[in-house]
Amino acid sequence: MLLSTGCHYAVAALVRIVHTAEPGRFCLVKDIVGPLDVPRDYLRKLLQQLVRAGVLASAKGRGGGFALNRLAGQITLRHIIEAIDGPDRTYRCMYGLTQCSASHPCNHLPGWAAVRRQMDDLLDRTTLADLAAVVRF
Q1: CATH of the domain at 69
Q2: pTM, whole model, 2 decimals?
Q3: Is residue 42 part of a domain?
Q4: For 53, what's the count of Cα atoms within 13 Å in the CB-facing half-sphere?
Q5: 44-80 pLDDT tens trace
Q6: How far apart are alpha carbons 35 and 89 in whole angstroms?
């Protein structure tokens, strides 16, 4: 499973929020974009998807913007991927075959089920706090 461009941008934006937001304050899109090479309108759309998924909170008007809806240690990489690409993203076949799914994993690659389990474990245990600790923008 490769991450989509939207997921890469969303992770980068969330890490940026962790690094720049003061506790209890909202970040403006212009502050999130900062050093990221992300089109502002596209980022705004991704941030709204994260709001709908409950990852972010948003507020309009003076003092508004975007803020984490939970602690960074409670937001997993799976939450982010599923918010942007949908819940089936992590179960798509690496070859693009439509018959592969969570209940019918790809059998075209020996050992793929074991790799899938490891990947699922990684997505469930890697948090935004973990990512923010090693990534800087």
Answers
A1: 1.10.10.10
A2: 0.86
A3: yes
A4: 21
A5: 999 999 999 999 999 999 889 999 999 999 999 999 9
A6: 28
